[in-house]
Amino acid sequence: MLVLLATYILLGISRLLTDYYDNVILPKSADVTSKGSAVVLKEDHLKLKEVNKQLESRLDEERLAKVSAQNERDASDKRLYAILNPEVGKYAGNESPYKEIKEKYEQIGQTEDIDAVINRIQSAKLISNEMKAIKAFLRDGFIEVKSQNSSQPNHAIYTFTGEGREFIRYYNNRIATHS
User: Rounded to two decimals, what is the model's pTM?
Assistant: First the structure.
């Protein structure tokens, strides 16, 4: 029994010595030897690594929250823009406000007349103001009178407005893609 008691006492003393070494001597020796070096205790390294992981996970969560907030803001902006500008919502995607006008001209059967008028306007030639296409272009605000001919009062030289140039661009693109 005495041997067993001595063994427990010696185990307790050895435990006390190892704890003292780990908790007092090792940190002091690390402080003394690593004043200018990058040597770090493994425990400190593991603690810092765990803190770094926690910070990275919080950063990822914040990034996701930021992206979802930006997406929500963009969607709100689009809804607000659609409310403030109802014309934009009407022609979403690849549709254009000129599509309806072009289809209206095609239903009347004026496509050849329109092509001829467009060419004459672009080459700044005199055009009769009695032509259906000229009347339609004037009505829709696509052209304006550049100069009136005094010898022929029902003829004039026309020029495209900004909206008229956009319509011609759309009209030519649609003709080119359907040919």
Answer: 0.42
CB 94 within 8 A of CB 75: no
For 94-119, write each residue's pLDDT tens digit: 456 666 666 766 665 555 567 777 88
Q: Does residue 159 come out as left (phi exceeding 0), alpha (psi in the -120 to 50 range) or beta?
A: beta
With contact defined as beta carbons under 8 Å apart, do 102 and 170 qualify?
yes
Residue 92 DSSP class: -
> Any idea what DSSP says for residue 155?
E
Q: Provide Rg for the chain, Cα atoms.
A: 42
pLDDT in tens, 61-76: 999 999 999 989 988 8
Coil/strand/helix, residue 143: strand
Cβ atoms within 10 Å of 171's Cβ, excluding its own: 21
